[in-house]
Amino acid sequence: GNELLEVQEYIEENVKQKMKSDLYGAAKGKNIIFINAESLQQFVINNEVNGEEVTPFLNQLIKDEDTYYFDNFYEQTGQGNTSDSEFLVENSLYPLDRGAVFFTHGGNEYNAISEIIDDAGYSSYVFHSNNKSFWNRDQMYVSLGIDHFFGEEAYDVSEDNAIGWGLKDKPFFEQSIPYLQSIEQPFYAKFITLTNHFPFDMDESDISLEPYESNSDVLNNYFPAVRYMDEAIEDFFIKLKETGLYENSVFVVMGDHIGVSANHNKALSMYLDKDEITPIDQVELQRVPFIVHIPGNGKGKVISEVTGQIDVKPTLLSLLGIDAVDDIQFGNDLFADNRKGYVALRNGDFISKKFIYTNGSCYLRGTGELIGVSEEKDYVVSESEHELVNACNEINEKVTTELRLSDDLIYGDLFRFINFDLTKKANQ
Ligand code: GP9
């Protein structure tokens, strides 16, 4: 009981926003089409290989007047990779510090997006051509209130149309269209892509961007694989326009987690034209694209505030015009003011407007200057620097508390003790 109270008080005091955003209700009654883009990292956006854009379609989508693009959006996953990103999105809770919460706590109670929007007349679906027990999705999706999972068995998979982990993204989207046309609207549908998965193997016939040239095959092959996914997403948009589903839908494209690990830093530093990948760069490489496309909106822009996957649930609920009054969320509506102002990574690192905190050191974001006393810096710090150190410590304490409280909720299965009917009443 005390643990729950502590969580609720913390959220009320430190997380909850008092004002609604201008986009509150902008997607009310519309379908949500959410594309979970496997291993898509921020650094490929508006970038080139061999003089060619890596993601021509996404680059164009980002510039569209109906698109909001978040270019300082961080993935916050732990060992559960894609499943952790799904967990963050559906719940606005942190994944666990070890193991995958989809496996370890797949039978818990949650108050996920799908459950909340059910009362607003939405049904929810996941499309992903992989074995349904992978990441324990079959069990976890029931706990998250997802109405139907179109898994591997829903698709026609053959030797010709599969690579690596399964069905290629182009036939995946193509074969998903009839299902999407057959389900009742409004729906919340999530598409989890698969082709752009480590080690990024591709059939020659699918390569339309030549690999990069470096000492890392992983990085080299990452670019053509990303390009293939970009083309698959473009084809999907074209088909959705043909079917008429486009106009009545709001689109989200999100990179789920990094694809190129620190093992490839030498090659990455060459690609990014840097002498080395510093600890700050390493944190910034955890940025993934987050794109919200609202057909007919006309007010799109690039938003550079520090944001992350923890913020997706409150943002989607707000777009749908749903007030989850008593929900427990550690994130904020990305379109509203008074956000927390920092993003916590699962390992305790964080990024705020002013700071990047990593490996126990705090740096000024922008200049990269290390602040405070450390082994690397032995001179006496000035008074103003003391203020910075205190400000950084303050966020650090909040991050530690948040991660602990989120863990408590999961380990104690504390959602069992909350009556979310209050939320439902508020929306009737
Ligand atoms: C597996 C797919 C990829 O079904 O979602 O998972 P990942 O290995 O990226 O966590």
Layout of helices and strands, plus pairs?
Layout: H1 2-14, E1 31-37, E2 48-49, E3 52-53, H2 56-63, E4 67-70, E5 73-74, H3 81-91, H4 101-104, H5 113-118, E6 123-127, H6 137-143, E7 148-150, E8 162-163, E9 166-167, H7 169-182, E10 187-192, H8 217-243, E11 249-255, H9 265-271, H10 279-284, E12 290-293, E13 302-303, E14 307-308, H11 312-319, E15 342-344, E16 350-352, E17 355-358, E18 361-364, E19 370-371, H12 383-411, H13 421-426
Parallel strand pairs: 1-10, 1-11, 4-13, 5-14, 6-7, 6-10
Antiparallel strand pairs: 2-3, 4-12, 8-9, 11-12, 15-16, 16-17, 17-18, 18-19
Helix pairs in contact: 1-12, 7-8
Polypeptide structure, described:
- Belongs to the LTA synthase family.
- Substrate binds at residue 197.
- It is a multi-pass membrane protein.
- The chain is of the alpha/beta class and 428 residues long.
- Helices cover 34% and strands 15% of the residues.
- It contains 13 helices and 19 strands.
- It has helices spanning 2-14, 56-63, 81-91, 101-104, 113-118, 137-143, 169-182, 217-243, 265-271, 279-284, 312-319, 383-411, 421-426, and strands at 31-37, 48-49, 52-53, 67-70, 73-74, 123-127, 148-150, 162-163, 166-167, 187-192, 249-255, 290-293, 302-303, 307-308, 342-344, 350-352, 355-358, 361-364, 370-371.
- Strands 7-6-10-1-11-12-4-13 form an eight-stranded mixed sheet.
- Strand 6, helix 6 (137-143) and strand 7 (148-150) form a beta-alpha-beta unit.
- The longest helix is centred in the last third of the chain and has 29 residues, at 383-411.
- The protein is globular and about 65 Å long.
- The chain starts with a helix and ends with a helix.
- 45% of the residues are buried.
- The model has no long low-confidence stretch (mean pLDDT 95).
- The chain binds (2R)-2,3-dihydroxypropyl phosphate.
- (2R)-2,3-dihydroxypropyl phosphate (GP9) binds next to helix 3.
